[in-house]
Amino acid sequence: MTFDPQKALGSDIRLLGNLLGEAIRLLAGDAAFDLEEEVRAAAKELRVNPSPEAARGLRDRLGSLDLPALRGLIRAFSVFFDLINLAEQQARVRALRHRAEKPDSRRAENAESALRQIAGRGIPAEEVADHLARAIVVPVYTAHPSEARRRSVLEKLAAVAQLLDRIEYGMLTPTERETAIGAIAEEVEGLWLTNSVRSSRPSVLDEVRQVLGLVETRLLHVVPQVYRKLETALKGAYPNHDWNVPAFLRFGSWIGGDRDGHPNVTHDITAAAVRLHQETILKHYLSRIETLGGKLSHSAPFVEAGPELKASLAADAKLFPGLPPGKGQEPYRAKCRMIAEKLRRTLEYTRTHAADWGAEKHVPPPEVYVGRQGLLADLKLIAEDVRRVGATATANGAIRDFIRLVEVFGLHLMTLDIRQHSGRHEQAIDEVLRAASVCPNYLELSPDARFTLLAKELESTRPLIPAHLPFSADCVEVIRTFRTMAAVLEQHSPEVLGTYIISSTTDPVHLLEVLLFAREARLFRPIEGISRIDIVPLFEALEPLRTSRDIMTKLFELPVYRRQLELRGNMQEVMIGYSDSNKESGFLQSAWALYRAQVDLTELGRREGIVIQFFHGRGGAIGRGGGPANYAILAQPRGTVDGRLRMTEQGEMIADRYGHPAIAERHLEQVLDAVLRTSFPADDESPDPAWLTALDSLAESARRNYRALVYENPEFLTYFEQATCVGEIAELKIGSRPARRSGAKSIEQLRAIPWVFSWMQSRHTLPGWFGLGSAVTEFLKTHPNGLAMLRDMYARWPFWRTLIDNAQMILAKADMVIARLYADLVSQPEIAERIYGQIAAEYRSAVDAVCQITGQTELLEKSPVLQTSIDRRNPYVDPLSFIQLVLLQRLRSGADGPSRDELITGVLESINGVASGLKNTG
Fold first, then answer.
1. 554: annotated active-site residue
2. Which among 144, 335, 412, 660 is annotated as catalytic?
3. Does the model's pTM come out above 0.85?
4. Which of 6, 159, 504, 737 is 20 to 30 A from 438 in CA distance terms?
């Protein structure tokens, strides 16, 4: 039978849609169902014949309804979107399974395909092995609040996904199938009856627990399979090489460590987050070791423990004299019992011992594991002995997967990054130096004078900070953060912390300030040859990106900082921020400044003998560096990845990429494929120098036009605040972090996530494309052969192709007709007309530019699957936008009727629904 993915997807959508329709009739009544059908039909007709007048007509029809009817419509369309998203997820899983049965190397995007290409170019196995030995690939989960769905909703959708899987692949009897469909109907009813809006903000530790649940249920099962596939691919590409693949794919988190503008992330919260990480992985290992012990029933006279295993068991017996030894004829079970006991003691120690920086040389008890090495040694001892007796299938089965998990996740699960704003360090250093009588006016010094002062202090051995802290609360918190890091690393896990990120890095002194705090907390002890901290600048705005090479050059020339790098393996990590640079300079200039900065810093590192490792701070939306992760990696400048890459996984993209085991596995395979390909580029993959010059011109032109609208037009802020729901988004309790860095209302103080989120809600999608169209238009006027060049760049330069394709996708999700209705919310019609007119003109220009460059007559002409997905959603997302418009008007007018709380709840429900419908929102 021919595989028809669209037919199978349509079948799932019909099933889920019919079940939702039945739930609506049953729980809300026929009238509610009929109203939903009427509105959906009107929205479909509007798509066929779009016009602002017709759109206003549908809006006004909805405006005649009372609040309960409107909220019922919101619920109907929102739940339907959740189900459509789920059906499309199942379609992706279905396609992956079909592709696995009939692999197509042209579309593989996995390690096998990449390695065959690399081997085909004559690159020897030894070079690949050396590359893997120094590689590091780390997805880092963050709690950036663009996942609008509640955990309860996500859990119900996961249950439906499992049931759909069972129906399709379970070979069920008719009765079993009806039972499964009944169970789906039960979950759909539950979705209808579950509040979609959180009644309170999640705490930081709630966010920690949510991502830990995903890691535990997805990654701990998927990661061993990803490594197995990689090992098989290496053996296939290089059959004569003896491969030992290091654990270079690991995972990190910011949740509980990111305190930039987040007053609720304190040193105590960081310590609690670390404890939750450890408890999660230790409990998982306990379950695994008990299962493994059940399997390893190998016993005398068929096996006899080797001398090393016997010696290990004897040492364990002395360590745990009260533990029953078990049957002596089953040595592997006996060792598993000892490992389990050690894990239990480690778990108890983790729960009860509070890391204390002031404790005198605290040493963890000998019966607990500290770090991964002890547990790894015990597991490898079992594996080697099992292999010694010839049970190779046993050695290569569950034991091997367990060892791989410990290599990847250690006893800490994920590394926890610490992030703080440079301004907090400046203020704290000022207090410390004043109290120590070193400098009375640090903040008044020039940058060069600060640099000289800090360099001198770092060469000194005198302590600056007393044990007891006579400073302001903010300064004390900064100091305690470093002390907590040191205590956790010494007393709990030597691997869980280590990266300290400085947001808004604009000067070399920002790194020296952190290094001085690290020294004071005993994290940096150069005389002893110890440094336990990587200090990572985050370059975000245009000017710091442009001057990043100068900033790092000055640091690399400083002996004490060079000593810090030597103690960290001569590796300097640099984080580059996509979100704030986009908000400041626009889509095109941001992307190009990030590209140029990577090239500059990589060249500097090569010159200085320092490895530059980049950490990409990407979001889900195109305006925050979003888009397919593998294409984003392939688009990086040649030589800047080289096997080393960290990247954030944020908001709704976490559920999208990791919500189903098969999709999580596929996503990680695509990441590894892209990292391998870009680390071993073909000789002809360097961009033409003329292209770089062209981008310099295009980026500057785009920035100029973007800044003219967003920052230089005094009417823009009024339009933004009234023509979007940015004010109401601040009340959406989807994350623990405040929406603004301060109370001031300005574009500068607004966080990048609500900036992007609000433009998506109002259907403008402006941060993902504004400036591109006018830049291309100006370029073509001054370059007679410019279009041919831009088309050639699109065909042969991954950076430009990815940028244009991402812009194309987000332009396709915009709707200028509906955006015009949001402009109607502006209290001054003349401002609405002028600002909207500029945005709409630039939109038309951007669409025209993209179509010219890609050789299409309309957007997504060559991407029919994506186009179909957007077309399928529009008749459902459009009504949600109209309802949101009605509710915003009522809310802001202060009209009599429903209370403000009920109205704001309706608005927030509509925001959730639009986010589910559009995706790539934050």
1. no
2. 144
3. yes
4. 504
